[in-house]
């Protein structure tokens, strides 16, 4: 498998895992979705907004844009509207990945964090970071769903692979 195929597979996994996570959250009440629980972010809602915001920010950076502001989610009053926004972001990611070439993966991507710190990494590392970031926060979401009495989604990479095997 080429590095480009690997990255595309990782993003397909990321979408699959995020969709399963959103399904698990959808089984909760709107009150539970917004309830302050503590942790890295105040609520399930805030955690999911952070996850999507990071994907939106990195997508902008892939296109050479300076992403300095926190993403505004005031138009996402509920989980359904957040999911619709995520669907649109997934579409943009897919178009970007479909147009990507193997050679572009090694090119450095310069970026600036919101703190003002600048960095640069090969694009392939940045792409892998985005998927890893999602995995990290899906673990937090699973804990919050469990604390609220729900059933978290199984989102292990190997489970994804097994669902795709012939």
From TrEMBL:
<keyword id="KW-0479">Metal-binding</keyword>
<protein>
    <submittedName>
        <fullName>DinB family protein</fullName>
    </submittedName>
</protein>
<feature type="binding site">
    <location>
        <position position="133"/>
    </location>
    <ligand>
        <name>a divalent metal cation</name>
    </ligand>
</feature>
<comment type="similarity">
    <text>Belongs to the DinB family.</text>
</comment>
<dbReference type="InterPro" id="IPR007837">
    <property type="entry name" value="DinB"/>
</dbReference>
<feature type="binding site">
    <location>
        <position position="50"/>
    </location>
    <ligand>
        <name>a divalent metal cation</name>
    </ligand>
</feature>
<feature type="binding site">
    <location>
        <position position="137"/>
    </location>
    <ligand>
        <name>a divalent metal cation</name>
    </ligand>
</feature>
<dbReference type="GO" id="GO:0046872">
    <property type="term" value="F:metal ion binding"/>
</dbReference>
<dbReference type="Pfam" id="PF05163">
    <property type="entry name" value="DinB"/>
</dbReference>
<dbReference type="InterPro" id="IPR034660">
    <property type="entry name" value="DinB/YfiT-like"/>
</dbReference>
